[in-house]
Design goal:
Layout lengths: L4 E4 L3 H12 L8 E4 L7 H5 L3 E3 L2 H6 L3 E4 L3 H11 L9 E4 L6 H8 L4 E6 L9 E6 L5 H12 L2 E5 L5 H28 L4 H22 L3 H8 L5 H11 L2 H23 L1
Parallel strand pairs: 1-2, 1-4, 2-3, 4-5, 5-6, 7-8
Antiparallel strand pairs: 6-7
Helix pairs in contact: 7-8, 7-11
């Protein structure tokens, strides 16, 4: 992609993406401009060739692709600031801001601007994000480009925009849910005799192995569970005890409540 990219509000997500794009040879550092009010925080990026700036208007004018990564409460100010630099036929706008619809961005920047809404999760920091993307007006070519961009930092799924709140619960909040399950497993490990650091290491690697089995084999969890459970065995006894205490049910209920909360937050922010 031989396009100039401006990342407006270069926080954790923007900086992780910038690193991923360069590492994957998707873009050169010299083609990416990172903006932040205090550019001192970006010195290490400037040292490796990225352009850094505190002038959002100029960064947008010089770019083809604009990635909005500011805080939700800063967005309207930034959109007002860059609006006169937007060329509707030229610019592709990507928003990674929670709770902001494509329509809300276009309302400020112009009806014909192509906008793609993107929701990564915190694993973007290690190139393992589960990123959901949605748009109500972007071309197939631009959707393909955005997909490739975010595949440099993990996996991507294109969804309908009205499912973004659900994606927040499953993928963004979901990181915390799986971490809590790992934490609980390690606590169980301590109770059956392991030191805390050993139990955590064992639980983490076991969880990683379980996830990788599904990713690499493309199988369903139950088919992998069947390989571990033998008649009258210890695995099925443990699983059934957890289910009697509502293991699956509590996870499902938690995801549903998170989605409900995310929807309410979106309404308030909008």
């Amino acid at each position: 992609m031989n396009k100039k990219i401006a990342i407006i509000g270069s926080g954790n997500i923007g900086l992780s993406l910038a690193k991923g794009l360069v590492k994957a040879n998707f873009a050169q550092a010299t083609d990416i401009t990172l903006t932040r009010r205090n550019t001192d925080h970006l010195k290490s990026f400037a040292d490796v060739g990225f352009n850094i700036s505190n002038n959002n208007k100029q960064a947008v004018a010089d770019a083809d692709v604009i990635i909005l990564g500011v805080l939700p409460q800063q967005l309207n100010t930034v959109l007002d600031e860059i609006q006169t630099s937007i060329v509707q036929a030229k610019h592709l706008v990507i928003s990674v801001i929670s709770g902001v619809s494509c329509a809300a961005v276009r309302e400020k920047l112009g009806d014909k601007v192509e906008v793609v809404r993107v929701m990564p999760n915190t694993a973007i920091a290690i190139g393992q994000s589960m990123t959901c993307i949605a748009s109500d007006n972007a071309s197939a070519e631009n959707i393909a480009d955005v997909t490739k961009m975010f595949e440099t930092v993990g996996s991507v799924v294109k969804i309908n925009e009205d499912l973004m709140t659900s994606a927040t619960a499953l993928c963004a909040c979901g990181i915390a849910f799986f971490l809590r399950a790992i934490r609980a497993a390690s606590q169980g490990g301590v109770e059956i005799g392991f030191h805390a650091d050993e139990a955590l290491k064992m639980a983490v690697q076991t969880a990683k192995g379980a996830a990788d089995l599904l990713l690499l084999h493309g199988t369903h969890p139950e088919s992998e569970i069947d390989k571990v459970t033998s008649p009258k065995g210890c695995t099925i006894a443990g699983l059934n005890e957890m289910e009697h205490n509502g293991f699956s049910s509590s996870l499902i209920k938690g995801i549903k409540l998170s989605a409900l909360k995310a929807g309410n937050l979106y309404t308030k922010e909008g």
